[in-house]
Amino acid sequence: MSEENDNSVQQKPLLFEDYSHENGITYWWASDFAKMLGYPNLTSFSKPIHRAMQACLTINIDTHDNFQKTDRVVDGVSISDYKLTRFSCYMVAMNGDIKKPEVARAQAYFAKQAEQLSLLLSGANDVDRLIIREEIKDGNKSLMSVAKKSGVSNFARFNDAGYLGMYNMRIQKLAVQKGLKSGEPLLDYMGKTELSANLFRIALTEENLKQQIFFSEAKASNVHRQVGADIRAMVKKNTGLNPEELPIERRLGEVGSELKKANKHLNKKKNNPPK
To answer: Which residues does the UniProt record annotate as the domain Bro-N (predicted)?
Structure first.
């Protein structure tokens, strides 16, 4: 073999499957996967890992099985690392920086695997929606606690005030306008932009109520409605659409089901390197 051919063999890039390890399960070290995706170290890789874990927790996928935190020795130095399953690698890649060409290639690779398993995922957009929806649940609990201290006892009326300000209509009418059937959870059909706008409405209302000196249910509801109106103007300015005109997306329950399916099938998938 010529020196030129020998160098070409040595310089051949390793594929995703080449980094896998076997020890009862097939796994990849997060520190190795970080370098594959163009991240200089595991510290800089922590955000996509934590967002992937957060999404899994949201839909009750076991993070311990998919993100096993383990100490390992690299070049004589003990480091804290994660053993990632094929599914958790997929989730991390979907939460990576798409501006990195390595991340874009990884997303394309996993999307191809998902297609082979008939999984209907929209990548990072679906993951973001899941996480924001969960943040809204927690944010609403916190807001209601602050609202109670501000004199609110009719929480349905207080909540409706925010929707009136943001959508110029009550939540029941909004659901009808969005084309949903009676009783369907409106927030579960909202896209990322609309969910983010509602999360901002909740956070700003809570902060505003904390700064009030005089407390009454009417005053608190007025604050919520005014914040909703401010968010409405912001959405219109930045999207050209009123919040009620933003399109709905598929129900988050379906997204969760698809991710659970992906967890089951991707982790069973044998090592078949892409052709």
So the answer is: 22-108
In angstroms, rounded to a whole number, what is the distance separating the alpha carbons of residues 26 and 272?
Answer: 12
Domain limits of the chain?
Answer: 13-116, 124-257
pLDDT more than 90, % of the chain: 64
Q: Distance (Å, rounded) from C-alpha 106 to C-alpha 16?
A: 8
Residue 143 token pair: 């807001």
pLDDT of residue 181: 86
Distance CA 261, CA 118 (A): 10
Please, what's the b/e burial string for 185-214 (b: 16 or more CB within 10 A of its CB; e: otherwise)?
ebbbbbbbbbbbbbbbbbbbbbebbeeeee
Q: What pLDDT is stored for residue 3 in this prediction?
A: 46
Least reliable range by pLDDT among 34-38, 43-47, 114-118, 132-136? 114-118
- Size of the chain, expressed as the number of residues it contains: 275
Residue 178 tokens read as 């969005």
